[in-house]
Amino acid sequence: AKQRAAHKERIKQLLIEQDAVLVAHYYTDPEIQALAEETGGCVADSLEMARFGNNHPAKTLLVAGVRFMGETAKILTPEKKVIMPTLEATCSLDLGCPEKEFSEFCDAHPDHTVVVYANTSAAVKARADWVVTSSIAVDVVEHLDSEGHKIIWAPDKHLGGYVAKQTGADMLLWQGACIVHDEFKAKALQQLKQQYPDAAILVHPESPESVVAMADAVGSTSQLIASAQSLPHKKLIVATDKGIFYKMQQACPDKEMIEAPTGGNGATCRSCAHCPWMAMNGLQAIEEALIDASGKEVFVDEALIDKALIPLNRMLGFAK
Ligand code: 13P
Ligand code: SF4
User: From which residue to which does any coiled coil extend (predicted)?
Assistant: First the structure.
């Protein structure tokens, strides 16, 4: 504990010395989220992280999350130094959508508007007409559908399926999945619901359709926290990364939070839903990145920045 406190103090000092601000996702460890809050940074969903970094005057953004979040920050503010505790923190959606194959897929359907989830590489974003996060995916696709667009959606098949169902839009789906949310199981969730019949079910839309179908609220991490507050239920079963419980419990101190089950055959596996890449954002790694950023600074090819900026700015403009 003493050592952790020392890390935190040192990080606080370094942030000031380097005119840096900590931008953290809800799935990072609670102590990272607390540190971001204490030091004037932010804890947010992926859209709000992008917006915060874009508007903040600091010279350096320290992004505690996964690679695409750091890349998005760099694309939006290339004049800033963007560092991450580790550049190894990737995302199964990003990994499952390589630029070359994706480009071929787009080329094969030239009459489609290309909408990609933020959880993609800069190169994939550069190929897109729109970037969206889970908080605005339905709204953007609804808008495009009303204008008669046919849509290519990548990479998350579950979120894409959910958006298609909500909007009725004509969508071709890339078949990617989040390894964390893909593990939530409807059968086990039904059993848990029988145990807690009064509980509301909150689900991130990267989860399988059968799990989303049981939800009282579906949304991005920020939207799920807002739903936790606004729903009248005193018990909440939550299907997303367990990192969210830190802020959700703070937002609703009088409510009981229950982790949705992962794993097959009705077996529940508590505390399993945690993104291995988000977990790489430790205190020590943050301190080290501030002391020596080599190998931890995010660079994006300039030509890609110019192209990826277009769909990213559309997203920010739409979300206003
Ligand atoms: P949010 O936009 O809801 O924060 O989701 C980002 C993410 O990576 C979910 O796994
Ligand atoms: Fe990617 Fe899933 Fe991890 Fe989010 S939780 S960063 S979607 S692997």
Answer: none
What ligand 1 atom has the least distance to the C-alpha of 49? 4
Instruction: Specify whether 169 is located in the same domain as 189.
Output: no
Contacts of 45 (CB under 8 A, 6+ apart): 25, 26, 133, 134, 135, 220, 221, 222, 223
Q: Provide CB contacts within 8 A for 104, sequence distance 6+.
A: none
In short, whether 29's Cβ falls inside 6 Å of ligand 1 is no
Evaluate whether residue 17 is within a structural domain. yes
In this structure, which ligand is nearest to the CA of 47? 1
Is 311 domain-assigned?
no
The pLDDT assigned to 271 comes to 54
**Atom 6, ligand 2: which residue's CA is nearest?**
91
Q: How many structural domains is the chain composed of?
A: 3
Q: Is residue 265 annotated as involved in ligand binding?
A: no
Residue 221 annotated as part of some ligand binding site: yes
Smallest CA separation from ligand 2 atom 3, residue: 275
pTM assigned to the model: 0.96
Ligand 2: which residue has its CA nearest to atom 5? 275
Q: Report the candidate in 280, 245, 276 with the shortest Cα–Cα distance to residue 260.
A: 245
- The ipTM (two decimal places) reads 0.97
Q: What is the pLDDT of residues 49-61, one digit of tens each?
A: 999 999 999 999 9
- Structural domain of 138: 93-173
Is the residue at 309 inside a domain? Answer: no
Neighbouring CB atoms inside 10 A of 291's CB total: 12
Residues 215 and 203 in one domain: yes
Question: 121 a known binding residue?
Answer: no
- Whether 86 is covered by a domain: the verdict is yes
